Amino acid sequence: MAKTAPKEEAPAAGDEPAVATGSKKKKIILMAVIAVVLLGSAGGAATYFLTKKPAASKDAKKPAEKAAPPVFLALENFIVNLQTDNGDKYLQTGITLQVRNEEQLNYYKANMPQLRSRILLLLSNKSAEDLLTNEGKLKLEEELIKQIQLPYNNDEPTPKESEERRILGVYFTSFMIQ
User: Fold this and answer.
1) Where would I find the H helices in the chain?
2) What are the boundaries of each domain within the chain?
3) Residue 33's pLDDT is what?
4) pTM above 0.85, yes or no
């Protein structure tokens, strides 16, 4: 009987280690699950941020590649008499227009006589005092843009036609008053 008693005690002692190893397994599984979740979320975040940046940089490069070079129309020099009260004053100036594209460039080339006439009339109505200051030159640029963008035929322009004639800039390549 002594032998059977230790056998009964042995299973009781074996139950305790089984419970202890079961809780260790649960802790290990729980840690493994937490580690997998953390690694998965870290990997997902890394993928999100790393794949998003190259897409933004590609978008930033596309507009730079699509940007067309500026198109300029250099006009022959203008020499005009200025309005004065005391003696003769002359203005000699070179003007270059910046337009949107080749189509607009061809439009202004086709209407060059009218374009030059408008500019000559506008310049000849100025006085030397008006044109000697930077403010006067900037005002002249604005007036030139308004004159040049007016229609070149008797029909009223549609909004689309007005946009097609829009001048991007007027640049004085030479400017001399005598």
Assistant:
1) 4-66, 102-110, 112-124, 128-131, 134-148, 159-164
2) 1-67, 71-177
3) 86
4) no
